Amino acid sequence: MRVNLNSRAQPGVGQVVAAGVLLLSVGCGGGVAPPALNPADAAAQAITEYDSDGSGSLNEEEAAKCPAIAELFAEYDADGNDEVSPEEIQGRIEQLKNSGVGLTSFACYVTKGGRALSNATVRMSPEPFMGGALQAASGVTDASGRAEMSIPPEALPKDWAGIPAVAPGIYRIEVEHPEAAAGGAVFGVEVNPIRRGGDQASVDL
Fold it and tell me: What pLDDT is recorded for position 4?
């Protein structure tokens, strides 16, 4: 199972426009504040959870315990020393917090052997070190394998009832489908409205 954060399946023009409207309206004009993240505390907690050798940083093997960081290891490793420090994790989380975006659209494309998989339930769970600031999101794939991810309807602002949206943050992804292996691999994603490709992911089972 693989996650490609720069999805091969590209949304149509109408979908791109819709996503842009949601991002601008909810993030800037809709009164939805960015998640109440504490970047320093979150980074320290991530190191506590995943730094098994006590070095104070995460190597690639340790980062594999946090699929989202593992997927973007080279981006998190800003100084290129093959380790991700708490300061580097803090910097990424500060980027999410400082984006000014409280909610944004996010799509997950699910395939099996390159074939679109419909009726798959996709679940996104915030990493524990996010400190409870994020809500879990879910979606079901359509015939094209695309799932529009969203927090629970009752958690959406009234002005955005019925519009799928998630908060920027670091999540784990799980896929439930008869063709998915039971207890299959868990992957991750960084929902980041200001990063290219940060509004979608592709999962190949």
Answer: 58
Provide DSSP, 29-55: IS--PPP---HHHHHHHHHHHH-TT-S
For strands 146-148 and 137-140, give the pairing.
unpaired
pLDDT tens-digit readout, 77-101: 999 999 999 999 999 999 999 999 9
| Domain total of the chain | 2
Residue 176 tokens, joined: 């439930």
Domain shared by 157 and 60, yes or no: no
Look-up of token digits 């979606």: 139
* Predicted TM-score (pTM) of this structure: 0.84
Q: What single DSSP character describes residue 150?
A: B
Residues 90 and 157 in one domain: no
144: in domain: yes
**What's the confidence (pLDDT) of residue 203?**
92
Question: How many other C-beta atoms lie within 10 A of the C-beta of residue 157?
Answer: 14
